[in-house]
Amino acid sequence: MTSIAHERFHAAADEPAYESAAKRIAPAGAAAISLTGLEKSFGTNRVLRGINLHIPAGQFVAVIGKSGCGKSTLLRILMGLDEPSAGELHFEDAEGAQASPNARIVFQEPRLLPWLSVADNVVVGLGDGIDRRAALKATEAVLAEVQLGEKTGEWPARLSGGQRQRVALARALVSRPGVLALDEPLGALDALTRISMQELINRVWRELGFTTVLVTHDVSEAVHLADRVIVLDEGRIALDLPIPYPHPRRHGNPDLAELEGRLLAAILGTGGGH
Ligand SMILES: Nc1ncnc2c1ncn2[C@@H]1O[C@H](COP(=O)(O)OP(=O)(O)OP(=O)(O)O)[C@@H](O)[C@H]1O
């Protein structure tokens, strides 16, 4: 499938990815995200401390950091699944007007309904009140995008872990979200499946152009997929690092390895700042 966003992106493929992503025309519905002075406490536990962050529409941001540093809390607040204790969260459309984008999330576990077929699990992502025929057409298209066109009538129990996670991705994508949140979506997969899923996520992002926030423990995954990597440390942004290389990226690229080193140093608190 080729979209306008995809063609424009490739027209600029020899430019640094950071610039290309910013120049790329984000599709209708892709939203910019702005966080100002965002705080979150659970009782006396101050989990997020004054987060200021602007994510342009269509950008792919990865959030990494030590266990418990507040990554999932940040994602839950972005998705409206939790309330901040203080500060502001805004979404903006292409004209800079306040927006309420269609935002979807994929978790580490696929959370499929075992009594529904693959196709019907994806239809769930469209919500109620959609004409059944139109829903199945959209479902077929998105399952083809995630290379599961052959499995529409299959039961989740008969799929591999990677295939189940592709169904979960299809369920999130079927409604053409403007914002996609990914909470360690590949964490339970083996290394090879993980790499092919990374390629898939990168491809659908380039084709569909939604704004993406990925939480991951895998620094290599972050630099491979993202335009920009945020390191959280004790609820603060310790590093905000652009990854200025075109997509798709090759595993084993030494420039990416150098950036991985800086990010790891920032996570471990051994340097690596701006
Ligand atoms: N609902 C909650 N009630 C109380 N404390 C919470 C709640 N959710 C998260 N926390 C606390 O907030 C802190 C940050 O948790 P969070 O899940 O955001 O971290 P994380 O960086 O995503 O961790 P991990 O990498 O291990 O998933 C932790 O100390 C956690 O115990």
Automatic annotation (TrEMBL):
Protein name per its UniProtKB record: Aliphatic sulfonate ABC transporter ATP-binding protein
Q: Origin organism of this chain? A: Rhizobium anhuiense
Start and end residues of each ABC transporter domain: 33-259
Q: Which PANTHER family match?
A: ALIPHATIC SULFONATES IMPORT ATP-BINDING PROTEIN SSUB, TAURINE IMPORT ATP-BINDING PROTEIN-RELATED
Q: Entry's Gene3D superfamilies?
A: P-loop containing nucleotide triphosphate hydrolases
Please provide, alphabetically and separated by semicolons, the GO molecular function terms listed in this UniProt record: ATP binding
PROSITE patterns, sorted: ABC_TRANSPORTER_1, ABC_TRANSPORTER_2
Keyword Ubl conjugation: yes or no? no
Key words, A-Z: ATP-binding, Cell membrane, Membrane, Nucleotide-binding, Translocase, Transport
